[in-house]
Specification:
With about 300 residues, the chain is an alpha/beta fold. The chain contains eleven helices and eight strands. It starts with a helix and ends in a 17-residue tail after the last helix. The relative contact order is 0.12.
Length: about 300
């Protein structure tokens, strides 16, 4: 199998430099594609061409600033009306919330809404978040699942969560905001789908929604999450008195818990087994300065 054909399906762009005159076009296209689409690009360079003399210089790649992308004012007002009519609101976040930490937290505080997230949203929404209620899905934990199913309105921000069986059905109303229109309604039926960047959309929405005063829904989800934390700490605290440590899941819980308390903030850990990864994900929390996003704006 040729290397170029084997990686073509995994890359956004695969270019091959067949002579020195092709260097500029291939390299510039690869760089622009990687920056614009935030993905992998590949340049194939044959050995004989690599030894040839290239002429000229590469032009600098101009990286455009991110545009403002949010729904129209009429759609935002419609969403605000749905939020105001709902007594209990839950926010569920994914990878699309990158760079929108402070906007999402400000909205959650105003709506007294629990904030759940999938695995790819954990790194952006868990830290400095008093409304965080954990994850849902195959490695989920905390009060996220219950909060999503007990809500009147589920606000799905930047997530293409693939496990539909973990998402609520009727009568929970569902609104999805995503910058990729193909993601809207792909996993579950929606009451409203909006095309937009999470950061820009939530910032615009903050001034349109009324602040809620009832906290029963949030308190219940936070209480469930605290119970999960207590359960997770059971084997960690009792670990030294359990000899031998078994079963295997107990060993993994204890190791994950100890790593979470003693590992440096900027450290990384990996696991070859899904079960070990599950416990590591539940015990290890994200820290603000580990996942700081350049240019993020803090909301009061």
């Amino acid at each position: 199998m040729r290397s170029k054909s084997s990686i073509r399906s995994a890359s956004l762009y695969t270019g091959r430099i067949v002579n020195p005159r092709r260097v500029r076009a291939v390299v510039q296209t690869a760089l622009r594609t990687a920056l614009a689409k935030r993905g992998l690009t590949v340049i194939s360079l044959p050995g004989d061409v690599a030894f040839m003399q290239a002429s000229g210089e590469l032009d600098p790649v101009v990286r455009p600033s991110a545009p403002i992308l949010r729904p129209a004012d009429a759609d935002l007002r419609k969403l605000a009306a749905m939020i105001d009519d709902a007594e209990h609101v839950t926010i569920f976040c994914g990878d699309g919330c990158r760079g929108a930490h402070y906007e999402v937290i400000a909205l959650a505080k105003k709506l007294k809404a629990p904030v759940g997230y999938r695995f790819r949203g954990k790194q952006y929404l868990e830290y400095d978040n008093p409304n965080a209620v954990g994850m849902t899905g195959l490695i989920g934990w905390g009060g996220a699942h219950r909060a999503m199913h007990e809500a009147d309105l589920l606000l799905m921000l930047g997530t293409d969560f693939p496990f539909s069986e973990f998402l609520p059905d009727h009568p929970v109303k569902k609104v999805q905001i995503d910058r990729d229109a193909t993601h809207l309604g792909r996993r579950t039926p929606l009451d409203l789908g909006l095309l937009g960047n999470v950061k820009d959309t939530t910032a615009a929405l903050l001034g349109l929604v009324a602040e809620k005063t009832q906290t029963e829904h949030l308190d219940r989800a936070l209480g469930t999450t605290r119970e999960w934390y207590d359960s997770l700490d059971h084997y960690v605290k009792r670990g030294p008195s359990l000899t031998p440590i078994r079963p295997a899941s107990t060993r993994e819980r204890r190791v994950s818990g100890q790593l979470a308390t003693c590992a440096p903030v900027r450290s990384a850990a990996s696991s070859a087994r899904l079960r070990g990864r599950r416990w590591r994900t539940r015990h290890r929390t994200q820290w603000a300065h580990s996942w700081r996003v350049p240019g993020a704006k803090r909301f009061p």
